[in-house]
Amino acid sequence: MTVTATGRLAGLRLAPGSPTPFGATPTAEGVNFAVAAARADRMWLVLMDRADGSVLTELEFPPEHRVGEVFTTHVLGLDPADADYGFRVERAGERGPVLLDPDARLLAGAGEWGSRPAYRSRIATGDFDWGDDRPPRVPTEDLVVYELHVRGFTRSDTSGVAAPGTFAGLAEKIPYLRWLGVNCVELMPVFEFDETDNVHVHPETGVPLLNTWGYSPVGVFAPKANYAHGERPDVELKELVKRLHAAGIEVVLDVVFNHTSEGDHRGPTLSLRGLDESSYYLLDEAGRHHNFSGAGNTLNANHPLVRDWVVRSLRHWVHEYHVDGFRFDLASVLTRGRDGAPLADPPLVAALAADPVLAGTRLIAEAWDAGGLYQVGAFPHYGRWMEWNGRYRDALRAFLVGREGTTGDVATRLVGSPDLYNGRGATASVNFVTCHDGFTLADWSSYDHKHNRLNGEDGRDGENHNISWNGGAEGPTDDPEVLATRARQQRNALLLLLTSCGVPMLLAGDEFGRSQGGNNNAYPHDDPVTWLDWSLVDRNRDLVEFTRACLRFRREHPVLRRAEHPHGESTPDGGYPPVSWHGEQPWQPDWSPGSHLVIAMMHDPNPRGRGLSDRLDTVVVAANSGSEDKEVALPQPPADSTWRVFANTGFARPLDAATTLRDGHVLRLPARSAAVLWAHTPSNEEG
């Protein structure tokens, strides 16, 4: 069938196409197009100028080429470089707007960062030379996750990179990541999103605010075009992954499959709504959108069409971009059925766990949603899923700010939350104190209340339950006592986080005291509020070195990285159990509501060595969140060993705290401090 087209598109012919794969697939003869639209009566392929998006021609999908609910055709003679494309649907006699291909591998028309996009789908072509790239395959128990925002990480001039705010800029910081000691980066959304999608304005300047974080996807197969330094975001993201892998660093993508940028009935019709709204979204009986995402709409994740779309997307990122895993934003949405009720056996969550292409990748759930469904410890895991442990964050914060009745809870969190993950192991728990959503670590120790006025919502947005303490003054201060308290609290949190069982996660910049001025919902800011100030690396060098030392200590002590939860039962020969609890006196823990002291001794009766065969792997983690100093009599170290102090945050030089141990077994633990000790068996060379 010859079609009507002019100019460089003259002479195109339409032949029957293949219903799979979905999207636009170059062939030797042209391009195959396939898109599902169950309720469409007719469909047109719209070809557009790659330079300005103007329509070149519209070609109707021949009805005889349709396969089931899939509109497909093979456009012979079409060079992928000749045109961008979209789809137009007719339903009940009405033709809608040009729609994006939900399977488009690239999206064009984004323009410069901050400008209103005019999106169109682009046909992806070309290969990438992966060379000998291989996934690092870091053992899960050894994983250290570092969460960052691609643009904010290097956008500031202080970053010193040649391509600030881009994939290439992040690649320039790989030596720093290696030096610090992390081995996994979790990238906040890199799917194409519209950063201008925000109705609020800056209250002081009147300038429109942005959606900088990007938790509102436009295309789930396409990388964010504005994160590229040049014209090929796909190539630049692949180059970043390749370089991270060469450095031994895994790449986890933060993915959003709970909603899209189309919003509710007031939002734009970009793609899914125009193709098949009632299949892609959760609607009530009146056709109104359920809003379990807090963003206006909610994906109907367990509909077969949507489930297969999500699986295709993730397979694409694993196969084409070599990513190592995914963190799922508001993952509890993925467990909801058509009526919004949670399913005991959600098909999508099960399919992702069993998918052979995704085997070996990390699946991490943010196990709650905006509709009140909280599944931490109860997310359907199918033996595969890990979870952001929100209860770890809350317990550690509550303990460190001195709340009563928290000692028993924090003790459970320190050993991997066995109450939540019994049978799944400690590595099911991704432990964190801070993340992108909420206070930074510096702000958690500097503010009692959120300060979100500059978000343009009169301070109404953001979490009110921050479990924070300002140390004696709200916000910036020159009071040396307050500053010392804040510094101690930050070190307390880092020390406990990095000596807990489970997988630790750090928020980028916490290691050098990054602040957002008390803003705990900084998503609309593309300015110094969200840009990392790299001058802090030198100004707060002590904190950076402390974090790095904690990460090194974790690597050197396998007892802190056990995959299974340590139990409290003595060994058959009467030796120390894998974990034991103590108080001011050995073997006498105080779990009363008024207690602020927790002391764990973690012991490995069968050291695995890992090159440290001369070290008996026993570590004591102690914390005093009360307002009074304590002196703690430690349990006897294992035979032929002595206690050595790694760190004590109660002293001005926490990594040089040898004097904090009196008589070899009495630990000085000042108010609001934490300490870590280890037992060492001398090697033959030592004596």
What's the layout of helices and strands?
Elements: E1 13-15, E2 23-26, E3 30-36, E4 42-48, E5 55-60, E6 70-76, E7 84-91, E8 94-99, E9 106-108, E10 120-122, E11 145-148, H1 150-154, H2 167-172, H3 174-180, E12 184-187, E13 191-193, E14 217-223, H4 233-246, E15 250-255, H5 272-280, H6 304-321, E16 325-328, H7 347-354, E17 362-365, E18 385-388, H8 390-400, H9 407-414, H10 418-421, E19 429-431, H11 441-444, H12 480-497, E20 503-507, H13 536-539, H14 541-556, E21 579-582, E22 597-603, E23 618-624, E24 630-633, E25 642-648, E26 661-662, E27 666-669, E28 673-680
Parallel strand pairs: 11-12, 11-20, 12-15, 15-16, 16-17, 17-18, 18-19, 19-20
Antiparallel strand pairs: 1-6, 2-3, 3-6, 4-5, 4-7, 7-8, 9-10, 13-14, 21-22, 22-23, 23-28, 24-27, 25-28, 26-27
Helix pairs in contact: 6-7, 8-9, 12-14
Descriptive report:
This protein is an alpha/beta fold and 687 residues long. Among the domains are: 7-122, Immunoglobulins (Immunoglobulin-like, Sandwich), CATH 2.60.40; 568-686, Golgi alpha-mannosidase II (Immunoglobulin-like, Sandwich). The chain contains 14 helices and 28 strands. The strands form seven sheets. The protein has an eight-stranded parallel barrel.
